[in-house]
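Following the same procedure, the fold was encoded as tokens, giving this record:
***
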Amino acid sequence: MNNQLGKVKSSDERQKAYSTHAYYSPVKDEFVSPKEIVYYEDQVTGGKSGFWRFFKKSPNSPKFELPKQVLTKKDFTEVPSSFAAYWLGHSTAIIELDGYRILIDPVFENAGPLPMIAKRMSVSPIQREELPAVDIVIITHDHYDHLETETMEFLADKNIQFIVPLAVGARLQGWGVPKEKIAELAWHQSVTHGSLKITATPTVHYSGRSYNDRNKTLWASYVIKGKEKKLYWSGDTGYGDHFKEIGSKYGPFDLAFMEIDAWNNGWPNTHLFPEQVVKATQEVNASLLFPIHFSTFDLALHAWDESINMVAELAAQNNIELVTPIMGQKVVPGITPTTKWWMRK
């Protein structure tokens, strides 16, 4: 079996490298969320939340194959466009900006360390072998539904700049990505790539790939600033003051990619509830909302389309424009019309 963990820095290495950051605890040897991540077993809705549910087919899966535009290398132009986006399911996307191509949280198979764990509810619109040439890979955190071993191994020898939160670089190095290709960012730290400036920003979340490495790596959202467009990528996050702070410091944004799914009363500040998605979009001061993190994995015991239905209704009530392409569809956000494809008659 592939090494699904990648490398992890030792405790001494972590304490030496990260102790100056307010969100790292040398005593606990872990990164600390701006809000404590809580879990209330007695308040879990939708069934039992135990790990064994990820071995079974989800009862919340769609009863029909979700629409998608199947992609291969030939569907991409050699030179990326000045502004376009492809949503590939869950939190995987390709963004073209200023002639650069950015791949975010690329996961094309299941969301666990073994093939039978957390299977996709809908097949990816593209296989990793069909990816076009990519300039930048951005990783938000090291959970399995955002960081895929086989994909990192596949991309390791390509001419790519990898941008990750603190300590995640060791994971990538364990899968063959050269250290010099990796930029590890603290919150509010930036890296440039041509005309692009990419800044890691806070989220309320946690990290880990096994039972004994929780919070040994950092998690992040990102501000992606080009010549004319400024984008926000939420990463995984519960609601918190960081949205107002990001909006004040980095906004306004032309587009916000916001996670909308995996909320549950049992873990109330791990992910955004639908009403919080709308509130957070307003607080970061974004003119368009592009929903991500839904319809691919059953992570929170609710119907696959519940989140998008609720967010669409709340967005309409608050005069927020949605960008909702089918998987694999190329869109120019704010220009390309999209549909309520999930509302199959």
Remarks:
- The longest strand covers residues 196-201.
- The CA atoms of residues 45 and 306 lie 13 Å apart.
- The two ends are 43 Å apart (CA to CA).
- DSSP finds six helices and 16 strands in the chain.
